[in-house]
Amino acid sequence: MRDWSHAEHVQAAGVEIVRMAGVLRDGDMSAPVRTCPGWNLAELTAHLGGLHRWVAAMVRDLSERRYDRDGMDMGLPADPGGYSAWLEEGAKVLSEALLSQDPQAPMWSWGADKQVRFWSRRQLHETVVHRVDAELALGVPVLIDEDVAADGVEEFLDVLPYVRWNPGVAELRGAGETISLQADTGAGWVITVDPDRFHYRRSLQPGTVTVRTATSADLMQVVWGRRSADDYAVEGDTGLFGWWREHSGI
């Protein structure tokens, strides 16, 4: 696995935003998004483009507090036919804000890392996951770069303990059971569920339960809940992984 810099996360996020805009350009914006129940593509796009602009505003100000996203004017077009172009414009807005600041400058975030660099990584993977949502909704092939996907799996594990809006995360405690996530392309992690917390390490070792996929791209979709149980192999304690999946939604 590679280690990423802030600038590389910013660049990759911009690429992903433009890529998603291209997916949406000729799509039916009223199409339901089955992986985000209750949303259609227009609502998904408004959510993601709004997030990019919300983050950009906080980064520009090095805000020490969370801005009220609902109270901000995101410039969303009245016609959903303009949403794709609006989303793409957000790539520049976000990138310029993120690159204008020191990656280690302190600011508010909802994760453990209270620095600008939290947001370059977070917005990359937020965008990748929602691009997958759009592609699944439109029935087009899902392709994720392996380096991006491997970092996406690890970022999921890094931020999961701080997902306060899902009370199930607080219940991810155990007696030392291990959940191994393995991609045939060579990336792997082992999660240990202890009485007081869970933690992970990079490892190719099997666990109490082992989940195997062909690629890191597949594995990223599994941990983010974008793959059904028919799309990956589980060895060992299947109930343990079912419990993990039930409690680890973001």
Automatic annotation (TrEMBL):
Q: Which is one Gene Ontology cellular component term of this protein?
A: plasma membrane
| Classification via InterPro entries | DinB/YfiT-like, Maleyloyr_isom, MDMPI_C-term_domain, MDMPI_metal-binding
One molecular function GO term is:
metal ion binding
Pinpoint the MDMPI C-terminal domain residues. Answer: 147-241
All copies of domain Mycothiol-dependent maleylpyruvate isomerase metal-binding, residue ranges: 11-134
Q: Which PANTHER family match?
A: CONSERVED PROTEIN
Name of the protein: TIGR03083 family protein
